[in-house]
Amino acid sequence: MYVVNSQEMRAIDQYTIEQIGIPAMVLMENAGRAVAEEVSLYAGERLQRIAVLVGKGNNGADGLVAARHLQEAGHKAEIIYATDPAGFVDEAAVQRDIVHNLRIPSSTYAELCVQWHSYDLIIDALLGTGSRGAPREVVAKLILEANESDLPIYAVDIPSGLDPNTGYVHDACIRATCTIALAFPKRGLEQEPGVEQAGRVSVRSIGIPQSAAEQLKVRTYRIEEPLLSDTLGLSSYRRRASNSNKGTFGHVLVAAGSRSMSGAGLLCSKAALRAGSGLVTWALPESLLDGMLGQIPEIMMRGMADEGRGDWGKISTQWILELAANKAAIVFGPGIGRFDNDTHWLRDIWEHTTCPLVLDADALNMLGTSIGLDALSRRSAPVILTPHPGEMARLCGKSIPEIQGDRIETARSFAWKFGVTLVLKGARTVVATPEGEIYINRTGNAGMATGGTGDVLAGIIAGLLAQGMSATQSAALGVYLHGSAGDRAASSRPYMASLIASDIIDQL
Ligand SMILES: NC(=O)C1=CN([C@@H]2O[C@H](COP(=O)(O)OP(=O)(O)OC[C@H]3O[C@@H](n4cnc5c(N)ncnc54)[C@H](O)[C@@H]3O)[C@@H](O)[C@H]2O)[C@H](O)CC1
Ligand SMILES: [K+]
Questions:
Q1: Which CATH superfamily is domain 229-233+248-506 in?
Q2: Percent helix, percent strand, percent coil in the chain, to nearest 5
Q3: Which NCBIfam families match (predicted)?
């Protein structure tokens, strides 16, 4: 499923109308009918008194079409224009005249005090992909009153007051029961807090062929089963040849853990195994080794001389490079903690190892603060970075609100600039590839906001890389599986807050 921004949607609209030849009025009729069908589904046999809030653009015109179809279905539709409809142009003017000719009751907001209690449901057709900035004047007032009415609100295309591209929620923003996304979901519906504001999202075809999005090279996708098996070609990984052996599925090197965070290495290593890698070696500071021995019998362990410090301050590059030599993937960072020594060895690993590399947690902070990504040469083998918003803020030298303000563009431009695959974690994790593609994950839940789940994700991704998947396949499938396992873990418990990272591994 493609996800589009307003500029891509306009281009797709134009292409469909001008190159394919489907008239705008046909698209609008389909859009309005789709809205009416969704409302009728909700209404069932009950006849509804519906207030249709109409803006002056085509979003409003879609609302007028919906009003007409709902009236035809026996409901009582009343139109409330935000501004004087005399000023409408093009298709909106045509739809205005039609509802007028059908004697559907209408009024302009300025003239009246809306009796919200006389309605059962509201359709929000005020602002769509043409909205710019915070809702102004009467539009803002209508939005706030509609929310205060506590009536169910069905939003056309996007909730008015939601930024269609970033998911930013303006002070005046419709809190929708359901959003009918026309043709393709807009980016703002796929990023918090837009996800919350949109309610249930129903993506409805309005007659625009999928090929229009392909033709215009839309490169932002929702991660869903069909995408994983088809576009990402992952179905070939479902079967294992019977004459396989543990070497067939790769050997992961996990470099993780320190005295206060030794469990991170365990979680990461176990997750890599559960994700299907053949072998896992966990490299950790020697003084921690005895305490960890045998905790997970399937994992091989190697202690690194640490002068009893229990941290990575004295790591020897030679030792790590020798360990990394025959590995299929390396994951660096979970639980390694911070220390002041020079981190030249991270640069050496970046530059002298040839297998895919996953950097997580404090390895990312080293990149951001002491080495600097732009100081590193492009690496022949793929690199996957898995920052949460705080680590991303340090990597980019920005604030967390700036990162969260436009997660998709932040991730896309970073991945493109540095030639890495970036997994920007959070609700609706964003995967960005060096080629400019974006994959938005929709699995997972708030119960996963608990220590160690990031270590598990890094291990899953490394485990998939070890089996020969590309960085894009490993990152997209990795976040999808991580969230799905988290959803299964949450639904198997009385309350999702009791979920811990190990539960995710067990559910993989
Ligand atoms: N393929 C499709 O998705 C189709 C979508 N359709 C609908 O068309 C709208 C986009 O229509 P457009 O006229 O470009 O923009 P809007 O209706 O969203 O514009 C609203 C209107 O309001 C004014 N305005 C803009 N920002 C603000 C603001 N902050 N406060 C107040 N007023 C504002 C501005 O002047 C605009 O004219 C899309 O969402 C779909 O619903 C087509 O109908 C069918 C194909
Ligand atoms: K709307």
A1: Ribokinase (3.40.1190.20)
A2: 45, 15, 35
A3: yjeF_cterm, yjeF_nterm
